[in-house]
Fold:
Amino acid sequence: MSLFPETMPRPEPNMDDAGFWEACSNRRLAFQSCNDCHTLRHPPTPVCPKCRSTHVHWQEAPEIGEIFSFTRIHHASHPAVSDQLPYIVAIVTFPELPGIRFISNVTETDSIHIGMQVRLWWDDIGDGVYIPRFKAI
Ligand SMILES: [Zn+2]
Structure:
């Protein structure tokens, strides 16, 4: 069962983030890495912000991340989330991937804190689309 109901808007991949969503469809969390200066970046962009290179590959993330920051959402910004309140939105970092700050949800925890380790899980929203989310270890 998905975290949010079917009325939740679905990802609409574009030419910049299609590689990200393609990796997600294979249940792989991957971020752009510049082939020339090795800078990692997210969200995906067509040009490296550091060296302007357009050459890129996708670097897979580990399953374990760390809470950099978080907030507990108590107000529904979309009708689809109104039955799920409160829920947690967090910025997750990966010590192995400097510079990556990934916004996601953290589930299955009542006691979240900065620095806490979390494990990646895949939210199956149907039709081969998987959303990366995290839960407490
Ligand atoms: Zn670069």
